[in-house]
Amino acid sequence: MNILEIMKQNKSYVSGYESTPMEKQYYAKELCWKYNQTLPKEQDKRIEILKELFGTCSDYVFIEPSFRCDYGFNIHIHGFTFINYNCVILDNSPVNIGNGAFIAPGVCIACSGHAIHPEQRAKGVGTSAPITIEDNVWIGANSTVCGGVTIGKGSIIGAGSVVKKNIPVGVIAAGSPCKVIRKITEEDKIKPEDILY
């Protein structure tokens, strides 16, 4: 099995710097650069670039520049998703983002990490694990989601959080490290008469 096949598997792995497929990184960086040069009204052009860059991309993906990723082919966005300014996705493993996800400015989604021991780290040994962001998740500004994490359907991650463990379905979680604060309930609905239309 080659490194690209290993990277596309939905499980964690350890690799050395020499196994990094640099030509794939360069290609992704070029596409990110092209994307970040588009005008705000060029949504069709943006979708065209994202479909070339990502493994899976619907017509209803909206990403505000500046956007960066490592490879692109490991990013799978299923349905409508809005990603705000300055998002970084280190997709050394698969990143699955569900329908209805909202990702606020400055979010970092990082599958990859480095070896803990300094000698190995200096030699480029690294780790990577997949990330799943389920349907209707909202990740607050300047949060970091680490490799191996699943954020459950409908949950909210508070701004500035560091998510290192799985977050269950339908909760508000925040902090560093991110912890569940409470469940989301019917009481959280905004009254229709309070919504401006």
Automatic annotation (TrEMBL):
Q: Does the keyword Transferase apply?
A: yes
Keyword Transferase part of the UniProt annotation: yes
Tell me which residues make up the Maltose/galactoside acetyltransferase domain: 4-59
CDD domains documented for this protein? LbH_MAT_GAT
Keyword list (alphabetical) reads:
Acyltransferase, Repeat, Transferase
Q: What is its EC number?
A: 2.3.1.-
Q: Name one GO molecular function term.
A: galactoside O-acetyltransferase activity
The record ties this protein, via Pfam families, to:
Hexapep, Mac
Family affiliation: Belongs to the transferase hexapeptide repeat family.
The protein's name is Acetyltransferase
Query: Which species does the entry assign this protein to?
Result: Gemella bergeri ATCC 700627
